[in-house]
């Protein structure tokens, strides 16, 4: 999978070089390229935004600068993801869908967002004919300063589903097992007693049927206790 992220803050993406994602890139399973939007500006001030037509608070990012940046990376089959709090909610299901994509482009908006003609332009039939799909995505019901952190959340959730990226493929199998809105059961390791709290005895029983029953009941209780 190839990922291009376009942003005015390329430094935000440094953590993607760490841990399993860094290894996946070294191993060639994944390539992540971060692009500075300002490199596409042609004026001396490197302007990326302007006041909104119709008035109102904040600034809107320039269509032309975004168009130049996206044109530089887009190819047949690309998925263009525009990060905005007004987008469709990112879920595990969307992560699964995107984990089989070949090329993801993350357009990280700041301020009051990107001139909407960018979305409209790349949604046209000529792009659809090239298997290019555009989506506006949000990671949840709260407002961030920009799409950078949101795109990193998506990149982590999506890329760990690519075979070979996650260290332990068994935990993936167990997870998909647990879909259907399931939350996982509580886990324990040594020591058997810590600060006066014992590991639940059923886990030491060696009775695998009883352990499975206990775990699913615990997962259910935890899900209920944490439900909004
Ligand atoms: Cl994608 N962007 C911003 N600015 N805020 C968000 C978001 C995205 N998702 C949730 N909140």
What does this entry look like structurally?
It is elongated, with a radius of gyration of 22 Å. The longest helix has 18 residues. The chain has 228 residues and is of the alpha/beta class. The protein has two domains: 167 residues, 3-Layer(aba) Sandwich (Alpha/beta knot), CATH 3.40.1280.10; 46 residues, Orthogonal Bundle (Trp Operon Repressor, Chain A). The strands form three sheets. The protein has a five-stranded parallel β-sheet, with helices on both faces. The protein has a two-stranded antiparallel sheet with strand order 3-4. A two-stranded antiparallel ribbon has the order 8-9. It contains eight helices and nine strands. The structure holds 6-chloroguanine. 6-chloroguanine (6GU) binds next to strand 5 and helix 6.
Q: What percentage of the residues does DSSP assign to strands (E)?
A: 15-25%
> What does the main sheet amount to?
5 strands, parallel
Specify the CATH architecture of the largest domain: 3-Layer(aba) Sandwich
Shape: elongated
Question: How many beta-strand segments?
Answer: 9
Low-confidence stretches: none
Gyration radius, to the nearest Å?
Answer: 22 Å
What order do the strands of the largest sheet run in, or round the barrel if closed? 2-1-6-5-7
Hetero groups in this structure are: 6-chloroguanine
CATH class of the largest domain: Alpha Beta
Q: How many structural domains? A: 2
Instruction: Report the total helices.
Output: 8
As a percent range, the share of helical residues equals 25-40%
State the separation between the terminal residues, measured CA to CA: 35 Å
Q: Which series of helices and strands comes N to C?
A: EHEEEHEHEHHEHHEEH
Relevant CATH superfamily of the largest domain: SPOUT methyltransferase, trefoil knot domain
Structural class: alpha/beta
Mean pLDDT: 94
The CATH topology label of the largest domain is Alpha/beta knot
């Amino acid at each position: 999978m190839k990922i291009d992220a376009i942003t005015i803050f390329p430094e935000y993406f440094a953590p993607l070089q760490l841990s399993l994602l860094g290894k996946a890139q070294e191993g060639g399973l994944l390539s992540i390229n971060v692009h500075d939007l300002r490199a596409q500006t042609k004026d001396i001030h490197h302007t990326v935004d302007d006041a909104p037509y119709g008035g109102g608070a904040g600034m809107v990012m320039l269509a032309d600068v975004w168009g130049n940046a996206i044109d530089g990376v887009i190819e047949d089959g690309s998925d263009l993801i525009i990060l905005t709090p007004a987008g469709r909610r990112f879920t595990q299901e969307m992560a699964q869908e995107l984990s089989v994509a070949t090329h993801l482009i993350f357009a990280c908006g700041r301020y009051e967002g990107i001139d909407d003609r960018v979305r409209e332009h790349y949604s046209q039939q000529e792009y659809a004919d090239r298997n290019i799909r555009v989506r506006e995505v949000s990671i949840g019901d709260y407002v961030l300063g920009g799409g950078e952190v949101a795109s990193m959340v998506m990149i982590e959730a999506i890329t760990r589903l690519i075979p070979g990226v996650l260290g332990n493929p068994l935990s993936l199998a167990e997870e998909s097992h647990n879909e259907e809105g399931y939350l996982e059961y509580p886990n324990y390791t040594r020591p058997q007693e810590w600060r006066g709290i014992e590991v639940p005895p059923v886990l030491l029983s060696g009775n695998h049927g009883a352990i499975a029953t206990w775990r699913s009941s615990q997962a259910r209780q935890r899900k209920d206790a944490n439900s909004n």
